[in-house]
Design a protein that fits this description.
It is built from ten helices and eight strands. The protein has a five-stranded mixed sheet. A three-stranded antiparallel sheet has the order 1-3-2. By secondary structure, it is of the alpha/beta class. Helix 7 packs across helix 8.
Amino acid sequence: MRLTKRDYEMLWRINQCMWLSTTQLKREFFPDTTDRAIQKRLKVLVGQGFLFAKQRSLTEEQFFRLGSKARQALIDNFGIGHKAVQIPRAFPTQLKHFSTLNDIRWYLERSVAQRKSELSFIYVDKELKRLMKEALIIPDILCSFMLTDQKFVLAIEYDAGTENPQYFGRDKVKKYVRELDAGMGIFGYPQICVLVFADTRQRILSLIQSSLKFLNQKSPFYFASLEDLQKQNDLLAEIYINPAELKGRQDDSLFQSIL
């Protein structure tokens, strides 16, 4: 079977993200293609061993990882080493959290590229656990890029809404503030920001409320809902709230202002 340029690009993207859904693949590689045509191409790639498909139930969409033939195809096409291709065996246990991080990554890379820049690095999940063993807190995503001759470092958190908002404030935010105040390692960069995402604005309000007492005026925390991210289609747009700048205002006036 002869792979197309788009096939190779799709395989490489799946290699970066481990598992991607049909919707995610359509958004990036088949934006103007019918669902039937997408499913037909993916079915061919699965049948030929370049992709492996997993569907948890008939009511959920399929997710894809690299198949057994993908490793050699990527090595031959991109001239990379064997270790650069990773084929996961386990399906994500926290699928919503995992999949949303890949959505955020897509918006991030697209937004940086639109500003004629590119990521200097991006680390997710296992890579971060290995690189930040001594840190009090490990972000969901850590990345860096240059804009207008300034280096920015983003630590990104996604709250899936499965935990009490109070836990986010007293545990995660508190640990981030301690690391930022200490200024060691990656937390010592002058242009570091912590971006916090949640599905809805209402959830964001709850997270802000739980975080306020742990923040100071210099805390570089910025909160945004995925609703607003999807609406603006730009992760670097003006969709964020910095709670540290709003401390001292009455809760009612603060939280009604962004509803």
